[in-house]
Specification:
Largest sheet: 5 strands, mixed
Radius of gyration: 16 Å
Strand order of the largest sheet: 2-1-3-4-5
Shape: globular
Structural class: alpha/beta
Length: 163
């Protein structure tokens, strides 16, 4: 059991590294990795601002890359690790890609679709996936709160300079 927790934390920390990359580029810091047979096969981080595209969530990018790497749209033997609870769009992509389990860090009380607002993992879709939240949740939540705090401070300074 302890080894399993260490493995979950190891992969979540890798996802957190991608979240930090997103923050460095001015993106909301969400990172994701897809794991198959104990190895990371794909990763992603938010690129909505860079690509000017609402679909460019970390999970969507990681799923796209995993499908390309495996040459298949079914990711049945894969697990997704993501720093923030997936939204409904990403939860739908998880179901459609047949990912078996999702591990997420921070809970998203505004858009979370794996427990916070709605739990799409409990619906009777043609593919059922499991979801487990709270992996390194405080560290994942800090990445987000720190990012938004810095963004607010930057915006306040800009407003003050404009006056």
């Amino acid at each position: 059991m302890e080894g399993n927790l260490q493995m979950k934390e190891k992969f979540m920390r890798r996802a957190m590294n991608y979240a930090r990359k997103a923050a460095e580029k001015g993106e909301v810091p969400v990172g994701a990795v897809i794991v198959k047979d104990g190895k990371i096969i794909a990763s992603g981080y938010n690129k909505r601002e860079e690509k000017k595209n609402a679909l460019m969530h970390a999970e969507m990018i990681a799923i796209d890359r995993a499908c390309k790497k495996l040459g298949a749209w079914r990711l049945e033997e894969c697990e997704l690790y993501v720093t923030l609870e997936p939204c409904p769009m990403c939860a739908g992509a998880v179901a459609n890609a047949r990912i078996k389990k999702v591990y997420f860090g921070a809970y998203d009380t505004k858009m979370g679709a794996m427990s916070s607002v709605i739990d799409l993992s409990k619906y009777n879709f043609n593919h059922h996936f499991e979801a487990e939240g709270g992996i390194l949740k405080d560290e994942c939540a800090f990445l987000l709160s720190d990012f938004f705090k810095k963004l607010r401070n930057k915006n306040e300074r800009q407003c003050a300079n404009e006056q």
